[in-house]
Amino acid sequence: MRPPVTPKERSTPEPTPARDGATTPGSTPETASQSSSPTSSESSSPAPEPVSDLSDLSPVRPGRGALSWPGLPLLAALALWAYAVRHTDVSRLDDYGLVTALHPTFWAGLAVLTAGFWCTVRDPRRPGAWAAAYVLGLLVMERATQAVLYPTPLYAWAWKHDAVIDHLLTAGGLQTADQVGDMAVYDQWPGFFAAQAALVRLLGVESSAMYMAWWPLVSSLMLLLPLLVIYRTFTEDRRLIWTAVWLFYVANWVGQDYFSPQSVAYALHVGVLAVVLRRFGRSTGRGRPRQAVWTVVITLLITAIVISHQLTPGMLVVCLVALCLSRRYRDWVPVVTTVVIFLAWCLTAALPFLSAAMPDMIRSVGDVGANVETGYGATPTGTGAIATSWAARLLSGSVLLLAAVGVLRQRVLRHRARPLLLIAAAPLPMFAASSYGSEMIFRVLLFMLPGAAFFAAAAILPKVRTLAADAAAQETGDRRNAPVAVRRRAGTWIPLAALLGGTLAFVPAYSGKDRINYFPPQEVALVRQLFDQAPEGSLVVAANRNYPLAYDSYGSVEHYWFLDDARSHVDRIVRDPAATLASDMAGVERPARAYFLLTQGQLANSEMNGQLTREQLERIEESVAASPRFRLVAQNGAGRLYVLEQAGGAER
């Protein structure tokens, strides 16, 4: 009989291929294992106790079939998804958005994909390429579905960013507040827009609207590599790495992956963290020349972040400062670099905006209650809106709860991956800094996700053990836990249920407001007709800004969204719509015109976010239609456009 395996023997696993990250050329498994430990480099700390991998799940049967069968569920899931998108009708969305519109085979495909992923990833001997294929399948099903189903891009803010790019191409440069008003803030953070303008010219397309529907998939793919680098810094277990990646994507329902500066700045933020965690720790063993190269790399990434987005540099600073609380990452070069570049930009290019906004920013500091509350017009109304809002909350709460369980349960990971724990907690103080337009709570969640997803994955995987503890248990015959068969069944089905629940909950959390965010081709055509005929200096009045091309020609056309006004004035419009609106629009002089636009997207946004009911908005539109002061100039199934008759005769 072979004698019991000693801790020394078990701390030397069999080499695995270099592509899986266990060993590299010129190194042994022992040295690779030691170099991956966050604490092994600290001279003041004892050498860390060797840690076993998460390999107490039943192994797969050996053989060629065992290596290739994961492709069957993956192909089946994608086939079900393809069938679903061909048989889904999005012409009439209800308050549940895409949830009730999807063909049932979509849900079946998502369930098959999740089950196939879990059964594939839970065995460490399967090639890591299968886990990657499943994650890519997840991104296709959850991020590309809308691009395939909807004939026009989603989300009014994406259309707004398209207008900024178009204006940059037309104007040929940046402009001041005297020229474009409040929209000059985009010229003070032009990084994303300048890059997209160059891309439009490079691709030879008419505008970024030609490809922005696919941006959620593109921006999600941009996050994959830095996430893998971060997680592989703290573990070589492929199950933990890929499960963390999966949970990150299904928990990222916040919607900041759309065509926006935030999507790119966030990917760059995660990229900076990946470089710092991988190359700036004390155990990296890098010389000064190599460290200088990585300093240049993060400087370029930080610069791109700073010139593209207002909030992300602040989040990056707090994360880097939090890392300095760990002895392994007590390197102030990344922090100082970020702060210097950030301050330099704020005191030069961004100074006009900050000078005007600084009083309000100072007043909001410390007012946590006001910073996290939603304002008027941001409260979900109706069964569908409330249900999908709660789905998002429960999804986020479940992932954070799992992360807390993982921290408490995985004592070894809590020690080895402490920097990820610090990164997850670092954004929390930002609640006290600003409301960020009532969105700070969502942004904090977004920046917590890389660390939270890692520990959430650790919660549903087998408990990490030290090798010495394993050997002691073997020698003493300590088996006080549940029988092996029971543990294996629980270790398979309970995590799968948690993974499946989160994956399915992503759909209502992410797509539950598509009735607001989707603009049918008729609505796009109506608004385009408006801006094609509006002379320079014209005014467009609408209920809110939730319609496509809302900011088109913002350099020459003014906008007024009356639901953004004081509630007293909104009530006055509701009581006497035509007379009040005519008075608001009367200051426009010829040849400019004043237009009143009411579309399907405005109705959906007002109704589902608790502004005005459909009946109230329809009474406003009926009053305008009946008034001799207004004339109907265009209409279709998605809305109507009126023009205010100017003094001195009717318009032709």
Commentary on this structure:
The chain is mostly helical. The protein is 59% helix and 4% strand. It has 32 helices and five strands. It has helices spanning 7-10, 29-35, 64-68, 71-86, 98-101, 104-121, 128-143, 145-149, 156-171, 177-180, 184-188, 191-203, 215-234, 238-251, 261-279, 288-306, 312-323, 333-346, 351-364, 368-372, 383-409, 411-416, 418-425, 440-460, 467-476, 484-511, 514-517, 521-533, 567-575, 577-584, 600-608, 614-626, and strands at 539-542, 558-561, 594-599, 630-636, 639-644. The chain has a five-stranded mixed beta sheet with strand order 2-1-3-5-4, with helices on both faces. Strand 4 (630-636) and strand 5 form a beta hairpin. It is globular and about 80 Å long. 43% of the residues are buried.
